[in-house]
Each structure stands twice: as structure tokens, then as C-alpha cells.
Design brief:
The chain is mainly beta and 163 residues long. It has one domain: Calycin beta-barrel core domain (Lipocalin). 12% of the residues lie in helices and 54% in strands. The chain is built from 1 helix and 10 strands; from the N terminus they run H-E-E-E-E-E-E-E-E-E-E. Strands 1-2-3-4-5-6-7-8-9-10 form a 10-stranded antiparallel barrel. Strand 7 and strand 8 form a beta hairpin. The radius of gyration is 19 Å and the shape is globular.
Length: 163
């Protein structure tokens, strides 16, 4: 009897866990859609995500420093690539004159973990060991990046507010 109750309890926990998990699909990531902002005296950041045709999310982002120039512009896409949800990113300087990545080799990450209002992307190729997380918390979108720069870990967090 005790083992039967234990199995029922374990089954209930497993069922509750599965209810909160969402499949890694483009439809499950529609919560990213919107215009997201963060501003301070030294920087202004905006990230936008739109649902595009052919089952893809299209993103753009910029980080600029008011009054002193410099910054970064970013183009992003999330789409299904042979059944795998893939994030591709390219960075440019604030004038679009210089690309950071090779013209034929964007930064590539694949969705490894999806939950309600959260997705984790794992770096591929020369980005192996890096991770990008997006998490929606009400009217806020949180970006968490764990990157490697010359072998050293860099942790970046940005919390955006929606329009």
C-alpha cells in the first residue's frame, strides 16, 4: 500500500512538472513578441521581436551611448531548422560599417530548454559552452547571456520593460 501511494505521489509530481513544460517550438515562443527597452544616463537599449512569415521570429536590437557615440546593432532570427529551433545573431557597429561576425557565419544557438515564458539556447560551433536565456516576467523580458571571451566566462543580464 505504501509503495502504491508513493508511486501515485511520484506520478503526480511528474504530471505537474510536465504541465509547466512547453515544447521547443516557434509557437511556444510567441511570448517574446514586442518592443522591449532599458534606459539609463549612459546607455539606451532596445530589443524588438516580431512574428514573421514562414514560422519565424525576427529580432533587432541596439545598444547606444547617448552623447558619446559607439554601441552595437544586432539582427536576430529564430526559426526551425530541420525541426530544431535555432537562434542566429549578427552584430554590427553603431554605423553598420563593420560586422563583428564573418559574413557567412552568424552566431548560432539551438533551443535546449523550453518552459512557459522561458527558453535557453545553447551555443553551437565556436560558441559551444555559451548560453542565452530569455525569460518573460509580466511586462518585463530578461536576457541572460553566459559567454566565453578569450576563454574567460562573461555573464550579462539585461531586463527590458515592454511598451
Amino acid at each position: 500500500m505504501k509503495s502504491g501511494l508513493w508511486l501515485l505521489a511520484l506520478g503526480g509530481i511528474a504530471a505537474a512538472t510536465n504541465v509547466s513544460a512547453a515544447p521547443c517550438s516557434l509557437n511556444a515562443l510567441a511570448w517574446m513578441k514586442g518592443a522591449w527597452h532599458d534606459r539609463s544616463e549612459t546607455m539606451q537599449v532596445e530589443e524588438r521581436w516580431a512574428v514573421g512569415p514562414d514560422d519565424r521570429l525576427l529580432g533587432s536590437s541596439w545598444l547606444l551611448h547617448p552623447g558619446r557615440g559607439g554601441g552595437v546593432l544586432e539582427a536576430e532570427t529564430i526559426m526551425s531548422d530541420a525541426g530544431t529551433v535555432t537562434l542566429r545573431i549578427r552584430h554590427f557597429d553603431d554605423t553598420l560599417a563593420h560586422a563583428r561576425e564573418d559574413k557567412d557565419a552568424p552566431m548560432t544557438f539551438v533551443a535546449s530548454t523550453c518552459a512557459e515564458n522561458e527558453v535557453v539556447f545553447d551555443g553551437q560551433g565556436d560558441r559551444a559552452g555559451e548560453h542565452i536565456t530569455y525569460r518573460r516576467e509580466g511586462d518585463r523580458l530578461k536576457f541572460i547571456g553566459d559567454f566565453l571571451h578569450q576563454g574567460k566566462p562573461i555573464h550579462v543580464e539585461e531586463t527590458f520593460t515592454g511598451e
